[in-house]
Amino acid sequence: MSSMTDSARPLLRAAGLSKYFPLESGILAGWRGAQAAVKAVESVSLDVYAGQTLAIVGESGSGKSTLGRLLLRLIQPSAGHVQYKGENIFAMNRAQLRAFRRQAQIILQDPYASLNPRMRVGHIIREPLDIYREGSKAEREKRVRALLERVGLTSAQARAYPAELSGGQRQRVCIAAALALSPEIVIADEPTSSLDVSVQAQTLNLLSDLQRDFNLTYVFITHDLGVVQHFSDRVAVMYLGKIVEEAPTDALFAAPQHPYTQVLFSAIPRPDPSRRVNWELPKGEPPSPLDPPSGCHFHPRCPQVLTACSSTVPRLLETAPGRRVACLLHEDEEN
After folding, report:
1. Four-residue CA torsion sign, 285, 291, 292, 294
2. May I ask the CATH class of domain 12-287?
3. pLDDT in tens, 277-298
């Protein structure tokens, strides 16, 4: 975890960000009507500060990966915008976008699927340098060797193909390729979920070391709260496309406020059985993003549901400095 730093302006800022995927054809579109759409991300606003790690957590289907792609302009939003150093990335021209691309990189979940199986490791890492014409050929090769060694691989492995490497080694290649252009911000989308537990720890330690050495800013997307506690500065919790709670990591783990966050915490394995939590488990199954519940999306499953929750959409309000919660139970705590 990086040290907390205060900044007047965030490195990356999302405001009112939404992404709807319309169902234009097929059985589901006919069933839901002509305007049916999956609301993958809905009215998300958040800040990412330089040198810090913002973790985005939630169940599968909560919109985490879609949000990560929006932050890099890999997909276009249905509404809202993202600012990088005060500039709207969706209004950038070709030259501005090219400059942004070198400063913002992504590490994907499946290292094998994200690597070209017909390219050697050295070529994969060198490709961004070739595209941006960084230095001479000899300087690029030197950079590739340095990156390989920095992520714990050998220079000889530059000639290997992805299929010849283990899962952990392939992920290290992905990390090296993401760092080739010396970016400022890296979106890490479930970078350890496909790895063995021991390899996960090694990868997280590597990412932490690289953040310190290169002053990187991370947006870390995961469903594993155990990883989040030791790796992030702040946490944003998503449910059905919306942020329901955001707080500094220590504060969130000390006292999660939203009932959904409490549910997530109750699922964390605890080595000491005597340290039990009193949070109730959710009711029923997660609703479909095609037909989210009215009011608070979590209310059909919430063990602390109020009568108003079925009709009133809770606002994401600040309940303490640096802490926001979208829950009617906490609306009287607004500062």
Report:
1. negative
2. alpha beta
3. 555 666 667 788 888 899 999 9
